[in-house]
Structure formats: C-alpha cells, structure tokens
Prior knowledge:
By secondary structure, the protein is α+β, with helices and mostly antiparallel strands. The protein has one domain: HIT-like (HIT family, subunit A). It contains 6 helices and 15 strands. It has helices spanning 123-140, 178-194, 198-209, 250-270, 313-318, 327-336; strands at 3-6, 13-16, 52-57, 68-74, 91-93, 96-98, 104-109, 148-155, 167-173, 213-216, 220-223, 234-238, 281-286, 301-306, 321-323. The mean pLDDT is 90.
Amino acid sequence: MPELRKDPIIDRWVIIATERGKRPHDFVIEPDVVKGGFCPFDQGNEHTTPPELFALRDSGTAPNTPGWHLRVVNNKFPALVMRPEDLLNRQGEGMFDKMNGIGTHEVIIEHPDHQALLTTITIEEFMLVLGAYQERMLTLAQDPRYQYVLIFKNWGRAAGASLEHTHSQLIGLPIVPELVQEEIQGSKLYYKWKERCVFCDMVRQEMQQQVRVVLENQEFVALCPFAPRSPFEVWILPKTHHSSYMDLSDASRRHLAEIFSATLKRLEKSLLSPDGFRAPYNFILHTAPLRDPAMPHYHWHFEIMPKLTLMAGFEWGSGFFINPTPPEDAAQYLREVKL
C-alpha cells in the first residue's frame, strides 16, 4: 500500500508509491547524445575559457596553459555576476521586492581527460575535486557580499549538463537559499525540542537499524533517506557533528572521497541500462552559511539524486514528490552491487 512519509528536518511530505514498486532495471534510461567535436574544457583549449580563478597544475606550468590537473574558471554564461564595485541594491516595486543580481558562477573542471568521470578517476583525483570545493568556499567567504556558496553537479543531459566533459559548478549568493534556510530552521526547532542535532540522530538511528545504510567508513555514512524525493536518492553525511564543509580536514577528505566514489559507482552500476547507458544524476552540497559560527543543530551533507522520474502536474501543483522505489529497497539494491 502507498505511504506518505514526512522528512524529519523540513516537514516535507513525499509519497512512496509502493504499488508502482520500481526496481533498478525498470527505469528507462535515455541515451545521452554524444556531441563530440571541440570542447573548451579539454587540455590545450585553455585560451577558450575565462581565465583561471584557481588551478592545480604541474610545477613550472603557466596559468591558462596545459599541465593542469583541475581548473576553476568563471562560467561563460553565468547566472549571476559580481564586479569589485558592485553593492547589493535592495528595493521595492510596489508590493514586490528585488535586488541586483550580483554573485559568482564558477565551473570546476574536474579532470583534463575528456573521457574521465567521477566513477573512473582515482581517489587522489577525487580528493582534488573535494579540496577545490573547500578552497573556493574559503576564498569567497572573505568577501562580505557573499552569504552562501552552493556547489552542485549535473551529470547527463537530462540532469541539466550542457557539456560532456566532467565538471561541477559553484554559485556564490548574496542570500541563503530558501531550502537551506528551511533545513537550518527545521533543525533548530528539533534541537530546541530535544537538545540534539536531527542529522546526528538520523545517522545514529540509521547505523543502528542498518536498513537504509548503503555504505559507511571510519568517518562517513551513505544512506537512503527515510523520505526521499527521488528513487535511489542517497545522502552522504559525516558521522561526527560538523555544520560547515569548510572545516573538513585533509584526513577526512580522503575518507569522503572513498565513500563518495564507491557510492557513485554503485549507483552507476545498479542503474546501468541494458544498452549500457548511465543514469543522469545531480548532487548538491548543503552546508552552513559562510560566516555563521559553528551550529550545534545543523550538519553539512551531500545529496545525490539520480534523474529517473519527472515532475508533472500533481508534483508541481501539490509540492509532493512521488517516489516509486522505497528507500529500504534502494539501499538493499545498492549494498548488493558487486564492484
């Protein structure tokens, strides 16, 4: 029988449509059309992108030339832009509010090889990607105009990727996104009620029950949340309490890279179509606002969402998400994948 489940953090309800009960091979994975041809992110084409903001490269190589392992550049078609002289300009238009669209939109080019994927690179290379996220957040935190940095990855055309070369994106914002505010407020209410972090309670209960846990290591756990919005949604959380991703240590970065890589590989293999097409996905980093002090009630985490279903009229009209795969089943499928 279908179930309504409530997210314990933001009171969001989802419908687990158990009677639709979809297994991994039941989803239709559309093939990505490989465009081929010229790619501005390939090594040797550095002159076609905006100048480097940050790069990890071989000693002795000049910026914006070959010899790099990872590059960060401004998005050529940014959602937001910021010049040194720009200031927030909040104003009203009758009953409506608006401000100038200042911010930054950056691209993290994760590897020089056009064919590389996060599921094929080494753990050391994955660590470079995770470290670049942290480095850019620490840098942007020095500018008081930025309140929040949202880091995300779109992989596959259906998930919003316009270029095939593996990359993720970063948008620096003058405001904190609504969903993050809802998480912070929801976790604050839980903390006020129970004097415990809701995320820490979630991690403890899931590790005790071992029903929705996919993987764990010394420092992190990957689990399918109780009320997932999409089939095979997976969250990766630190086992110990940390509210800001900027506090991640070098040693923890390796453990994060290991569990993140293994989780993506399990999702890829589990959801691979009979024709060999990989499922598109998005992942998002949710962390504390840039200059907030350590929060006892909030817990940074990554959310990975394969793009397997579409939002239609009911979802848009009601705000409910319909998920045809119970998270308990999804976690079991992912645990059983042999890599």
